[in-house]
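Quick illustration for those who missed Monday's session on complexes.
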Amino acid sequence: MSEPSSQPPTAQSIDELTRSAAAELNTLENLEAVDRWRVSYLGRRGSLTTVLRGLSSLNIEDRRTIGAAANQAKNTLEDQLERRIHRINEEALQRSASQDRLDVTLPGRPPGKGRLHPTTKIVREICNVFVAMGFGVVEGPEVEWDHYNFEMLNIPKGHPARDMWNTLWVDYEDPAGENAMLLRTHTSPMQARIMESREPPIRVVVPGKCYRYEATDATHEWHFYQVEGLAVGEGITFADLKGTLYEFARRMFGEERRIRFRCDYFPFVEPGVDMSIDCFACQGDGDGCRICRDSGWIEIMGAGMIHPKVLEGVGYDTDKYTGFAFGLGPERIAMLKYGIDDIRHFYANDLRFLRQF
Ligand code: DAH
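Prediction with 3,4-dihydroxyphenylalanine bound:
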């Protein structure tokens, strides 16, 4: 850095000053140093500023030529100053970008692990309980014939019981205009399909998806799951039904559970029942309980002794064979078990809901 000179400036001294200032500027690597440089040459007391001030001591002639050179020098240095600052910033940017580069030696980020859907969990839990009691697991078609969904279950065409199932029909009929196709409204058609294809003894559960022409609300979905159960053999009585389902309820909801059967109507069973368990939230107390709505009981499934007409329909000897069937809704059970207040959560694909299970 040159000391401000007290000598009157000459074209040569200005040239020298400019060169040495520019050379110095080019060695500076950071903005603080550059700013110190700016103060020392172009600041109020900087060397070049002093030179410019010294112009006043020159005669008119020199002042014009040397003044022009001095102004030129000032512009040059300001220009170079700006470029230097730009360059320093640019280099800093590049350094940080190269630090952000992909390091292939780093361990990978673990991919988000999926989990089982709450319905799947409950379906598996239900099936496992029955498997432990000697039942097999079978699945069946979701697109079904009217024949299996209704006819074989003792629900003939025009029968008022059809109104119990709000059906989604598929736009198809066989050439005779028979055998209408539909999305199965329950898993019960698998009762007939299984019995047609095997001889007793039969013990199976059938998990699967069902569909109904339903306006959705907190307790109704147009698609949902069911788990159907079927046991056929010699000498099967209502006592077997009770014993099996009682055992299921205890294994699923706790040893201390009590159960209750009430008469109900389903065309494919006789007698038909609905089965309730005493509420596991209030232990059957009822008062003020949100889960069982003050009743102390929770309905969990429909069941019954297989109607003789259903057994005849699949060609079984009704003097020899009897059986029981049941059907339950896993979403309803999950809702009770986890305190879920709206069935629509299950299939809304909201991860905030699904991650809780
Ligand atoms: N399929 C019936 C429904 O969707 C439920 C049902 C009731 C199934 C009684 C059965 C049964 O096997 O015996 O509402």
